[in-house]
Amino acid sequence: MYEDYFEKIKKQQLDELEEIIDNKIFKAGLNILYIDGPEDDPDLIIPARKVMIINRNSNSEQPVVYRKGHELHHYLEADPLSIAVYEYSPLCKRQEERSANEGAVKTFAAILYSDLPNEARDWTKMIDLFNLPNWYDQIVVDAVYDNPIDLLNYDKEDYFD
Q1: CA 80 → CA 4, 45, 94, 101, 137, distances in Å?
Q2: pLDDT value at residue 1
Q3: Given this model, what pLDDT does residue 153 score?
Q4: Residue 158 pLDDT greater than 60, yes or no
């Protein structure tokens, strides 16, 4: 029973985030094309054509809103003369992928946590929301907190009576 409730809340939060990200995508001058491709086909961004292609059948572990944020950052950082097409990948081995993932995480952290003081933020909620793999932990911590080292100095009893 509670699982259904929490899944409903999570879906609502993802839907709200998707609306915000879609607005950022459109403001960047991009169009979104939705396709029903094979489940192992990745989402794409073609910077020169200003088009993002989202595969609705993707078997990706991350929700579509995260994948859109990732592809948006490929576009924002793209050199259209060097790479014609970027494919979604949650991996961080290639610099382009790491940069797109860091950009997406920073964007979502700014949306989710900007109104909260550092001590009230919880980076694990972002990991759970986007089903991010454990190698994202440090990327998320760095994006969520203004200065992660300062967290070591907080006494929780001062903030949570």
Answers
A1: 44, 11, 17, 19, 30
A2: 57
A3: 57
A4: no
Question: Looking at this protein, which amino acid is placed at residue 149?
Answer: I
Packing angle, helices 2-27 and 64-77, rounded to 10 = 20
Q: What global pTM score does this model have?
A: 0.85
CB 140 within 8 A of CB 98: no
State the greatest distance between any 2 C-alpha atoms of the chain, in Å, as a whole number.
56
> Whose CA is closest to 86, among 94, 65, 128, 122?
94
Structure tokens at 135: 């190698």
Alpha-carbon distance of 116 to 39, in angstroms, equals 37
Using DSSP, state whether 112 is helix, strand or coil: helix
Long-range interactions of 101-104: CB distance < 8 A, separation 24+: 101/70, 101/73, 101/136, 101/139, 102/73, 102/139, 102/143, 103/69, 103/70, 103/72, 103/73, 103/76, 103/77, 104/66, 104/69, 104/70, 104/72, 104/73
Cα(89)–Cα(158) distance, rounded to whole angstroms?
41
